[in-house]
Amino acid sequence: MKKIIAIAVSVVMVLAASVCVFAEEELYSMTTTQGQYQESLPIPGPIVMQEAYSRIATNWVGGGSEFNAILNAINTPDSTLIITYTGTINQFIIQSENGSTDSAIDITPVEVDGKNVATIPCADIIAAMPVATSGSFGGWANVALIFDGDVTLESFRIVTGADAPAEDTAPAEDTTPAEDTTPAEDTTPADDAASAPADTGIALALVPMAIAALAVVANKKR
Question: pLDDT for 88-120, tens place per residue?
């Protein structure tokens, strides 16, 4: 019995460890912008456009600590950028002096709990912006967003082990009264002959139980 309990406990511990292995790991999370024209805006909070871009991190602002942290996280294998916001963000880009051939990535969010969530594999960012992400971008570089109207940036995170969020697709509640399809009650007296097979079946089902009980009693007497 002790061996069985030990095996069961070991299995539970292995399963618990496997949950940790596949858990999401956060590599970077922005708490304050550090970009040109918006150096220290708190996140979550509204961000602004300036000269067609919203620069949220610049390599020469504040010593470039936020920019460098973002670049390092993007270059981590199997990492994912997750942007949560309200409003409309059209594109993500890392601008740079030498990256004229780099291209922006279109953002296609899903709605989760009333907010937009865009998930971008960092491998796609590296493929679209090889110059900027390589570090050989020249004298200046910006992590930037391109959007229309008012935007509140709820979070800007880079993680590993992330699953794409599922969009809220719950159908609207149907308030139409349900049709009563309950069959009319049969008031015809039950036929005693019809109930006989059921009674017989129950009796037969109890026979093995009775035999088993007798076997246990006989075994105890021995």
Answer: 999 999 999 999 999 999 999 999 999 999 999
**Per-residue model confidence as pLDDT tens digits over 38-54:** 999 999 999 999 999 99
Structural domain for 86, as ranges: 24-160
Tell me the CA end-to-end span of the chain in Å, nearest whole number: 25
Task: Please classify residue 216 by burial: count the beta carbons closer than 10 Å to its beta carbon, then call 0-12 exposed, 13-18 middle and 19+ buried.
Answer: exposed
Does residue 171 form part of some domain?
no
> How far are the Cα atoms of 20, 51, 94 from residue 125, in angstroms, in the given order?
27, 22, 9
Count of Cβ atoms closer than 10 Å to residue 169 Cβ: 7
189 domain residue, yes or no: no
Residue type for position 13: M
DSSP state of 47: E
pLDDT at 193 over 90: no
* CB proximity list for 132: less than 8 A, separation 6 or greater: 94, 95, 96, 99, 102, 141
Give me 84's structure tokens: 């949560």
